[in-house]
Design a protein that fits this description.
This protein is mainly alpha-helical and 393 residues long. The two termini are 33 Å apart. The protein has one domain. The chain has 17 helices and no strands. Helix 1 runs antiparallel to helix 2, helix 1 crosses helix 4 and helix 5 crosses helix 9.
């Protein structure tokens, strides 16, 4: 049992190291390598896996992988690129982080309250380290160059997208990319809100680290998380939230227009343009899409200034078509159904983060989902046990 706890702790510690690998330039993050190691351990030991670790979402996700593979095969003759096959494998490895995490948790029988608190605290140590790295980089730019290459030693992220001026102006922590890091920090804030034992000091550290990223993704996630938390309180607070939203829309109506947002900087322009361009692709290839990994090829052919669709849901819809998209969303829905309402804030934080990025393969996301599903199941069993004891008495 202790070995399973230590194994999941390794997943917690490795999850924020988004692009770090034990094998440099392998394009396989540390959490993926650990999961592959655990899979081998399970196969070799031939120990029985807990049935609670599996469900209908696994069958649906398997169908999604088959659909994505068919999409790759259909589009291969047109693009002649094997990157789509690598994307399918990456989708499988990503889901393994979730499933192996669940198996480890059910076999270790951890206390759910302590688990979420432990994750929140460990993630906060990363947030604090990110703050230290940011200020150290201001004093020693060469240290920042070394750190960004170390954080990206797997080679998953295009460092040319950052630039020296950007990396010195914004905190990227252990992600080598400010948006990924801000997403992680905002999700950790939601995790702290879901945990029963939370510290105001830890919350301040996470918020300070988030501000230093200047990441609009993280700020959007934080806004949605706070709005959802606020709306779960009294009716007066819900009314206040609606009124405040209407006032903001009226006051900043002109500034929030698409034409004005696109003129703020190149990032905004690229995000809006990717939505328009990819929607056109969806109309042409609605059922099986353009194939996983092929948007990068199309962007080179069309000489676009970006290589991604900055929205995971639209990205899967365009790349895998309506069939693949439906299966992916159904998988997420099945996972959501397993999470208690009192613990679903981090789940919605994850969905909010995916609204502005197509990075589905962020280890901290799937480790967190595994923890939420496990804690919810244990809590449900507790409630059933208490109800049964009450009825007996």
């Amino acid at each position: 049992m202790n070995s399973y706890r230590r194994a999941f702790d390794f997943l917690i510690f490795s999850a924020p190291l988004i692009n770090f690998s034990l094998i440099p330039n392998s394009n396989v993050p540390l959490a993926y390598l650990l999961c592959l190691l655990y899979v081998v351990m399970f196969i070799v030991s031939l120990r029985r896996l807990p049935l609670l670790s599996f469900g209908k979402e696994d069958v649906i996700y398997l169908l999604f992988l088959i659909s994505a593979s068919i999409s790759f095969a259909i589009n291969y003759q047109r693009f002649m690129d094997f990157d789509g096959l690598k994307q399918v494998i990456n989708l499988l490895l990503t889901y393994l982080v979730f499933k192996v995490g669940l198996v480890l948790l059910f076999k270790s029988d951890r206390d759910p309250d302590k688990l979420l608190t432990r994750m929140y605290r460990i993630f906060t140590w990363y947030a604090f380290a990110g703050i230290v790295i940011f200020f150290a980089g201001l004093l020693m730019p060469s240290f920042l160059d070394w750190q960004v290459n170390l954080a990206n030693n797997s080679g998953n992220f295009r460092l040319t997208n950052i630039g020296h001026s950007l990396s010195t102006a914004r905190s990227f922590g252990f992600a080598s990319e400010p948006s990924f890091w801000s997403f992680f920090l905002a999700m950790n804030v939601s995790l702290g809100m879901a945990a029963r034992n939370r510290s105001k000091l830890l919350l301040v550290i996470n918020l300070a680290a988030l501000v230093l990223t200047f990441g609009r993704t993280g700020l959007l996630v934080l806004f949605i998380v706070l709005a959802m938390r606020f709306s779960k309180t009294s009716l007066a607070n819900k009314i206040f939230l609606v009124v405040a939203g209407v006032v903001v829309l009226l006051v900043f109506n002109e500034a929030l227009q698409v034409s004005n947002l696109k003129s703020i900087d190149s990032s905004f322009w690229e995000r809006f343009d990717s939505i328009v361009f990819s929607t056109g692709l969806l109309v042409q290839y609605p059922f099986f899409g353009i194939g996983p990994g092929n948007f990068d090829v199309i962007s080179e052919i069309e000489k676009l200034r970006y290589q991604d669709i900055f929205n995971l849901f639209l990205s899967i819809l365009v790349c895998c078509g309506v069939i693949g998209f439906s299966l992916y969303m159904l998988t997420l829905y099945r996972i959501y159904r397993k999470i208690l309402p009192s613990l679903n804030l981090p789940f919605f934080a994850i969905l909010a983060g995916w609204l502005t990025m197509s990075a589905y393969n962020l280890p901290f996301v799937w480790v967190t989902l595994a923890a939420l599903v496990y804690c919810s199941r244990v809590e449900k069993d507790r409630q059933i046990s208490v109800a049964g004891t009450t009825q007996t008495e």
